[in-house]
Design goal:
28 strands, 25% strand, alpha/beta, eight-stranded mixed β-sheet, ten-stranded mixed β-sheet, 30% helix
Length: 663
């Protein structure tokens, strides 16, 4: 009836005005009054008896170009999102945590909750992104298309009309509420007016502190205190073990994992990378190695049977909670990875892993975004005692497997500290000799330290069968008080492949890059030029710590000798693991960053530095490891050692395929 009344009023209003209209009678006035209150009550009608998942099925339209699959929302495509969406309308729950890899649907979960609020249960919403700029981008690229493509939302939120309008990129008003989009580094926005709903996106990339106001999440949660029906959502890709916000939040909840039933034993298990078994080919083209995935399977941790992707996708699936009692505290937490995503095949995941596996920084991204797991940057590096116990006895100066020698040298005011390192296939290394040369490394070589260094550089280091190698490249630290002297001494030894290096700290700098000429001037005299290498020392330290973690000889494993006089004692290992990565708060509320800091109780870090320089000396060369191996095997005992400069530039080779089996 209300619709009929409203329609009659609309027809009355639509009639053209002639100036001869009769006065509006009482019945028309009553109709207008009914229509007015009918429109008014629409904003106060109770929500439909549906949850977020059902709302999305009924009203959500995915925008083309913004979603993997445009058109009406279908929860059946992402069944793992149904339970988190149901939890949002559960009156027992006021806190939901979702830990998820990338491109699995976590943003769509947030948007569905947001749409439900605006349409069904309006209230003030605080949507927090890592930064203000990211918040604006999310508003333009994700929220605006959702509103534009879903009629029930478009009716309630007008299009953005400028800075002074009620609806802008950062703020949108709708009947019964307001959506405010802010950054975690904006303290004034986080601590202003009360709000009923809070959605925190990409929590692990939030600022450590909102200006000087403290933890941004706690600031936001404080705004919900007066609401009995409050809801808070935390969503993020996991990052680093020990400093992940989202992982800590997950622990406070029900700790639910998406599990598949094994076709053989019938037990439910979470599909995770540790249980995957795979095969791949290695293609060698000159010095470049590439990997091609062949097959990938899941091995049931309960019964040991293996199953392929298609078989497991057909199996029953469900959430299993490790801490179900947390529901009494009102918190449900969920953890997802890409193995359940309908848009990412297992073979794609495998290939991305293979492409990244030789680079720790790239591998960290795969670990977080696809495997959905925390990356361990330092916590499981062996301690001093473990490394001492791991030492092995060498039967000769050079153990079998060494194909190349480099040396890293650290310059101090009263000594040179050095390490000779052997390198083999796939990043495997051997500590050969660590020592000190006492004396001042000055221009005149007053104490003869440079002459003693020459003895190490020129020396032929022997295998058990009498074959030998000389050091292929030496990197010497040019920092400290003897910078020009180091340049000069390296220039004199250019023919011996000796180069000065300068470290550059901070994330994002490559481990090595092509050298640049450095003019040498001492006492206003130009003595020549040296080739200076700039090293990304943070990348090198990360590489060292990753290598130390490897527990079995082979790829990236670090060997250390127990032989007396080699220099690999407790003092060496204390210095090798003397630093760790810590999260440093950004200034003025800026984003936090990772920095290397010395561990308490570790006085010296020279062993870490010289190992860094020795690895960089190898990394800076273009090395054909197979050719080195052939040359060494063809060398007769007692013959002249190979000249490294002749084998560091590889010839063009035909492609070669090696089959690798990880099952």
């Amino acid at each position: 009836m209300v619709e009929d009344v409203a329609e009659r009023v609309k027809k009355q209003r639509a009639k053209p005005k002639t100036g001869k209209e009769k006065p509006i009678d009482a019945s028309i006035k009553r109709l207008r009054t009914v229509a007015f209150f009918s429109d008014l009550m629409k904003n106060f009608s109770p929500p439909e008896d549906i949850n977020v998942s059902q709302w999305a099925e009924k009203y959500r339209i995915l925008a083309a170009g913004m979603s993997a699959e445009a058109g009406p929302w279908r929860t059946s495509r992402t069944p793992y999102l149904e339970e988190p969406m149901k939890a949002f309308t559960d009156p027992r729950i006021d806190h939901i945590v979702v830990v998820s890899g990338s491109q699995i649907g976590k943003s769509e979960f947030e948007l569905n909750c947001l749409g439900y609020i605006i349409h069904q249960d309006p209230g003030s919403i605080l949507y927090v992104q890592p930064t203000v700029d990211e918040g604006k981008k999310f508003s333009r690229t994700r929220i605006a298309p959702m509103i534009r493509n879903s009629p029930v939302l478009r009716e309630r939120i007008a299009a953005d009309k400028g800075r002074d309008a009620h609806n802008t990129v950062s703020q949108k008003m709708f009947p019964g509420g307001i959506l405010t989009i802010v950054g975690s580094n904006a303290p004034s926005a986080l601590a202003s007016a009360p709000c009923r709903y809070i959605i925190g996106d990409e929590m692990d990339r939030w600022a450590a502190s909102a200006g000087k106001e403290g933890d941004p999440w706690e600031l936001a949660r404080a705004r919900q205190t007066s609401f009995y029906n409050r809801k808070a959502i935390e969503v993020s890709t996991p990052t680093v073990l020990g400093s992940s916000r989202i992982a800590a939040a997950y622990e406070t909840g029900t700790q639910e994992r998406w599990c598949h039933q094994c076709p053989d034993c019938g037990e439910f298990s979470n599909l995770k990378w540790a249980d995957m078994r795979f095969e791949y080919d290695t293609t060698v083209n000159g010095t470049k190695k590439s990997y091609i995935g062949k097959e990938i399977y899941w091995m049931c941790p309960k019964c040991g049977t293996v199953h392929d992707e298609q078989e497991m996708r057909r199996q029953p699936q469900k959430w299993i909670a490790e801490n179900p009692e947390a529901i009494k505290k009102g918190c449900r937490s969920f953890w997802l990875n890409a193995f359940c995503s309908p848009w990412t095949s297992w073979m794609t995941i495998l290939q991305k892993y293979l492409d990244a596996k030789d680079d720790p920084s790239k591998l960290e991204v795969i670990w977080n975004t696809l495997f959905g797991e925390l990356w361990e940057r330092r916590g499981d590096v062996p301690d001093n005692e473990s490394l001492l116990a791991r030492r092995e006895h060498y039967t000769a100066e050079l153990p079998e497997g060494v194909l190349l020698l480099t040396m890293g040298v650290d310059t101090q005011d009263d000594r040179l500290e050095y390490e000779v390192v052997g390198h083999g296939h796939w990043g495997e290394t051997w500590g050969i000799q660590k020592g000190e040369i006492l004396g001042r490394p000055d221009y005149e070589d007053t104490d003869g330290v440079w002459q003693k260094l020459d003895e190490l550089i020129d020396r032929v280091w022997k295998f058990e069968d009498g074959k030998g190698l000389i050091i292929s490249r030496t990197f010497i630290d040019s920092g400290g008080h003897y910078t020009k002297e180091v340049y000069y001494q390296c220039m004199k030894r250019f023919h011996k492949r000796v180069f000065p290096v300068k470290g550059r700290g901070g994330e994002g700098y490559p481990f090595t890059q092509p050298p640049k000429k450095q003019v040498i001037e001492i006492n206003d005299r130009r003595l020549g030029e040296a080739w200076l290498y700039t090293l990304g020392v943070d990348a090198g330290k990360s590489k060292i710590m990753q290598n130390i973690r490897v527990q079995s000889p082979g790829m990236r494993y670090c060997h250390f000798p127990s032989n007396e006089g080699k220099g690999y004692d407790a003092k060496y290992f204390d210095g090798l693991i003397s630093e760790h990565l810590v999260m440093q708060k950004g200034r003025s509320g800026g984003s936090a960053k990772w920095v290397w800091e010395k561990l308490p109780g570790h006085r010296r870090n020279e062993p870490l530095d010289i190992r860094n320089y020795a690895l960089a000396a190898a990394d800076s060369q273009v090395i054909d490891w197979d050719r080195l191996d052939r040359e060494l095997k063809s060398q007769s005992s007692g013959a002249e050692p190979m000249i490294p400069a002749q084998v560091s530039q590889p010839p063009v080779r035909k492609r070669r395929v090696i089959r690798n089996n990880q099952i």
